[in-house]
Amino acid sequence: MKKYNKIGVIQHGCAKNLVDTELMLGMLEKAGYQTTLDVEDKDVKTVIINTCSFIGDAEKESIESIFNMVALGKKIIVTGCLPQKHKKELKELLSEVSGFIGTCDLKDIVKAVQADNFYSVSENPQYIYPEDVERAQITVGSSSYIKIADGCNYSCGYCIIPQLRGKYKSRKIEDIVEEAKKLADKGVAEIVLIAQDTTSYGIDIYKKPSLDKLLEELNKIDNIEWIRVLYAYPTNFTDGLIEAFKKLDKVVKYIDVPLQHSHPEVLKRMRRPVIDQRAFIKKLRDEIENVVIRTTFIVGYPGETEEEFEDLYNFVKDMKFDRLGVFEYSREKNTYSYSLKPQILSRVKRQRKNKILKLQKEISKKNNLNFISKKIQCIIEEVHNDGTAIGRSYADAPEVDGLVYIKTNEFLSPSQMVEVTVVGADSYDLVAEL
Predict the structure, then answer these.
(1) Which of 229, 263, 349, 400 could be bridged to 311 by S-S, CB 3.0 to 4.6 A?
(2) Predicted TM-score (pTM) above 0.90
(3) pLDDT tens, position by position, 67-99
(4) Cα separation of 47 and 36, whole Å?
(5) 200 DSSP assignment
């Protein structure tokens, strides 16, 4: 392998972006390049930076990576959300960058690496998953993400994703199943299904929500232990999908459903569906035994009054969600909410976020204490030499939820499924014995 064929990569953003990075690396490796995460390697002359531009902080992080690579004298290819959002304006601002590739132009990555000045950013993005490419995974472990769709047909007031990714586009069931089988053959024990909105899966190609049908097919795969679903939009959570969670043994009883707010007036301003959220959560808990529910909320959305925030606070207090994330509203250009008034002060947003997080910390600790003395199944993530291992229960999604710290004298290995007894707990993690 010639030294100049070594390509470095920096990955920013969500799991969906991660899959895109792995697809691009797969294309490069197929073309004969070697890829690495060690961008400071002296043999790495070219670095691909897959960027995130969902909120301002993510954008700053991506820009910082670009300038760091400029300082190291690397040839830089910027891909993903940042060039898609700013298009040729970014090219004019960053003359040091050799190539720009948009969110839906991944197929051009080899051309970009080989050229001195390359630009491929679609004016009207439409994501098409490259089914003929095998991902070069940079996060091989007990679990792996599978992107089942991309794009979005909703127009939430705070979100720029439809402008960056285009209309919702599902992959075929057989293609997803084939990818899952390959991952199982590599030793992956848990597959995590992702999309901008997983519950809309199949509407575009099968003319109705079909996530339940996909789960049925994935449930048949040997060596896959767990199937986890993230980013479930509440309005397409059908009775058929509830039934799939109930009856399919490999589908973990973990539902990630970002509700964003509780007050109907805020939801209207957000351009989110206004449903009876209390009834929805109650139905999930009544129908699916031992279900774990994760949600996320946005505080400080334009016009959010103290009364509306208190409604959200009381909703969290009453619902006692198992897992919960809170984000301060981020004002993004070209979104509906950008021009809404009044915009909420930063210190008020921060105070509101901290108030809900403090409440959720108490709720989480009580929930976790209920696990003490109980036996739970865990998937092993890491094994240490001191007789301890780190695992995750079905109640914990990778990267965003808690961990289980396991004391054992037995030999364990990553991806192994074990049953443990919980002996301790705090607000986020559990301690257990094998």
Answers:
(1) 263
(2) yes
(3) 999 999 999 999 999 999 999 888 888 989 999
(4) 9
(5) G
